[in-house]
Each structure stands twice: as structure tokens, then as C-alpha cells.
């Protein structure tokens, strides 16, 4: 059908060693999914039910640069494993969840922490803190057929060569199959959905000129410069 205004370009992420890209449908994020990070954010690390928030598809940015956003003085880095789905539906069983995974990538959930704190205090949504332009730098997608299931492995982030965050994927409170299952109870998942699975402790601020290197064992390193 013809459109009354120009249709937006689809968001397509590069796939490692492939000429084809991964088209993005939706972006879901899991909050406080590492115990140590829950503690540093002032919450109980017990295994409470997972909670989710969303970013926009065009927040995903493979360019390698992160423009410092306006209306904030406290932007934090959060390194995360991104899970890309090749299919989906409602009420997926955890035992079958990995059948829907296409692949994985290293990602950053950049957060305007001061705006998030204000929103929390007022009981308001987090979109202004989480879903701003280019707030999710992301590396190339690696098919699960190439890297296997990433249920364990080092996850880390350095800023200007100094380690800020470090953990292991096996420290996820809610594991990847459980995340997919729980999320599918709330939403009808589908091909092209991206899930950011949470960040380990050590989140902190960035400033213009910083160089971030985010790494997950088995995936290409993501290097991002704050501009």
C-alpha cells in the first residue's frame, strides 16, 4: 500500500561474516538480572520475578560511536548479551525456548541515570532514560549455529583500557530460556525480536572522548567511542 509520508527505513543489523543482515522487529530489556548489579542499584538480589522494559528498534546502533545525549549529566554504560530471535509465539516453554534463537551479539544499554532516578522517584516510566537515540550500541550478530549456546562465559567492559564491569553469563539470575519463556507470557514474540539480558555490576558514567570496549566470550568485541 502506498504511504502518505515516506516509510521509515527498516533496522537491519550486520551478521558476522555474512552479506545478509538481521532485521529488527522489537527490542526488550531485562532489568536487574545479575545479583551484584541488583545490590549496587539498591535492590534485593533474591530471585524475584523478572521485569522488562523496551527500547526502540532504531536505538540499536552498530556504528561504533555514541553521541552523548542532551538533558543529562550522568550517562552510564551497561554491557549486555543480546539474544536475537528467528521465530516466536506466545507462551513458549523454557525447554523449547532455544529453538527460537537465531544468534547473539554484544550490546550496551546506555542509560541517562539521572533521568532514570527522577522517573523512579516519581513513579514514572523510564523511556526518556533508556529509549533515546542510539542508546543501544551493538556488535555484529553471530549465529548460534556458529558460536553455540552462550549460557556461560566472561562478560566485561573497559573504559579507556580500565576494567569497569566483569562477570560471567552463568551469573544471570534468569537464564536465557527462562527469559524467553517469561517474556512470551507477556508478549507474542516473533522473528526479529532482540532481547538484552541484563548487566553485571560495575556500571558507571562515561564522558565525551571515552573509548568503551565491551566483550563476551565467543563473540566479536564491540568498541564504541563517546562523541
From TrEMBL:
Highest taxon of source: Bacteria
One MF annotation (Gene Ontology) recorded for this entry: hydrolase activity
Keywords, ordered alphabetically: Hydrolase, Metal-binding
All residue ranges annotated as the Fumarylacetoacetase-like C-terminal domain in the record: 27-226
Pfam family, one: FAA_hydrolase
Keyword Nucleotide-binding listed: no
Gene3D superfamilies recorded: Fumarylacetoacetase-like, C-terminal domain (3.90.850.10)
InterPro entries with a match to the protein in the record: Fumarylacetoacetase-like_C (IPR011234), Fumarylacetoacetase_C_sf (IPR036663)
Name by which UniProt lists this protein: Fumarylacetoacetate hydrolase family protein
Species this protein is from: Roseibium sediminicola
Amino acid at each position: 500500500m502506498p504511504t502518505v509520508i515516506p516509510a521509515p527505513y527498516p533496522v537491519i543489523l550486520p551478521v558476522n561474516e555474512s552479506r545478509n543482515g538481521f532485521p529488527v522487529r522489537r527490542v526488550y530489556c531485562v532489568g536487574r538480572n545479575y545479583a551484584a548489579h541488583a545490590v549496587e542499584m539498591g535492590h534485593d538480589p533474591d530471585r524475584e520475578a523478572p521485569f522488562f522494559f523496551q527500547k526502540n528498534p532504531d536505538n540499536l546502533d552498530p556504528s561504533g560511536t555514541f553521541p552523548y545525549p542532551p538533558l543529562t549529566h550522568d550517562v552510564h554504560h551497561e554491557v549486555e548479551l543480546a539474544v536475537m530471535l528467528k521465530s516466536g509465539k506466545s507462551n513458549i516453554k523454557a525447554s523449547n525456548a532455544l529453538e527460537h534463537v537465531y544468534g547473539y551479539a554484544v550490546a550496551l544499554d546506555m542509560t541517562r541515570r539521572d533521568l532514570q532516578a527522577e522517573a523512579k522517584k516519581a513513579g514514572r516510566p523510564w523511556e526518556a532514560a533508556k529509549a533515546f537515540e542510539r542508546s543501544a550500541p551493538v556488535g555484529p550478530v553471530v549465529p548460534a549455529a556458529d558460536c553455540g549456546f552462550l549460557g556461560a562465559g566472561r562478560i566485561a567492559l573497559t573504559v579507556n583500557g580500565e576494567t569497569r564491569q566483569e562477570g560471567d553469563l552463568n551469573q544471570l539470575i534468569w537464564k536465557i530460556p527462562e527469559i524467553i519463556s517469561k517474556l512470551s507470557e507477556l508478549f507474542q514474540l516473533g522473528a526479529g525480536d532482540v532481547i538484552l539480558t541484563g548487566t553485571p555490576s560495575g556500571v558507571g558514567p562515561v564522558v565525551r572522548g571515552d573509548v568503551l570496549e565491551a566483550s563476551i566470550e565467543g563473540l566479536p568485541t564491540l568498541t564504541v567511542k563517546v562523541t
